[in-house]
Fold this protein.
Amino acid sequence: MTHHYFFAPCPRGLEPVLVSELEQLGALSVRGHDGGVQFQGDWRICYRANLESRVASRILWQVASQSYANEGDIYKIARALPWNEWFVPALTIRVNVAAIKCPLRSLDFVTLRIKDAVCDKFREITGSRPSVDTVQPDMRIHGFLDARQFSLYLDTSGDALFKRGLRKSSGEAPIRENLAAGILSLTGWQPGVPLLDPMCGSGTFLLEAAQISLNIAPGSGRGFAFEKLKKFDKRLWIRLKDAALARQKPLVRQPLFGSDLYGDILADAHANLSAAGFSEIVTLKQANVLEISAPAPFGFLVTNPPYGVRIGESEKLLEFYPKLGDMLKKKFSGWKAYIFTADPLLPKCIRLTASRRTPLFNGALECRLLEYKMVAGGMRRIREIDITCQSDQQPVDFKN
Ligand SMILES: C[S@@+](CC[C@H](N)C(=O)[O-])C[C@H]1O[C@@H](n2cnc3c(N)ncnc32)[C@H](O)[C@@H]1O
């Protein structure tokens, strides 16, 4: 069995979640780095990681890793590779380059040299070359340079993996699907336990939670770049997809609740859940978060509130945060609340004591996932409430 080297980028802060996902899928030598996870495995692992990882942004197949000194070395390394054994020149390509501490002057020039090397190699062997398509390429090629080492990857995913093919409408400032799934994993929420997002926007947490509850592979409704590779093993792929389908649970109502202040935004969430086939299993309601009641005696509240720069105005938020804290104290005892925010003022103004603060990045934006254990009688730390799965629990309508 041939083992290949892969790298899976992910939102920064979620590397440990991705390490355990990949280990569970059977990947070998799994090692977290800043911004992603390196692993080894055969094509089966690569296909499964694309199909089943909820947290990876892409699965990149490493095709070269060598030391370099200048742009000439980059060209030679890229040109020496058997590109024509991997895909046909009728496919379009796009090259992306990222670097840390790279001494070369222009990354645009490096990008151009890699593209030239690939095209020259194709022309030499086949007489024709792939064209470049920067918008919707068939094959993405990623170069990564540090001070001395140049690594080249073929992207086996194509579109980024957070594009599940489910969310049709995006509301305002939606969170990426893989970040939402990673946050749910960090909270320790388990299927069957009540989950509420009271500022649900387009419903990303709910969509991810519904898929997790029903054990739906996140990639089951989309295509991948590896299907265009010459090495593509269609029979293996069909077997893996069928196996994932067989593990899906029946579509039954779940204790998943979402609300939002605005009817048009809630309509987006509704459209997204309907398009995914989840409208009957998730309960949605238009409501002000400051006026809701808990839909169950215990559960997980997971949300990302509006953030000054992008949606509201900072002054309004300074008034909103203490009210949110009061509401949680009064109406959510027995619950664990997880608030994902980029606003450093939220933890100061909410007037609750966070039991955990996890740094995470939403793109380049530094954020925190704040954990608040809501206990009866304010924030006194009492025995943790046992939140065992209650699969027969009926969803309760939100009270105003
Ligand atoms: C950052 S967005 C959430 C995005 C969401 N996680 C997604 O992926 O689409 C914050 C949401 O809070 C909602 N919101 C703002 N104030 C609210 C309030 N008082 N009660 C309920 N929802 C509110 C906004 O309408 C917006 O949809």
Q: What stands out?
A: The longest strand covers residues 365-373.
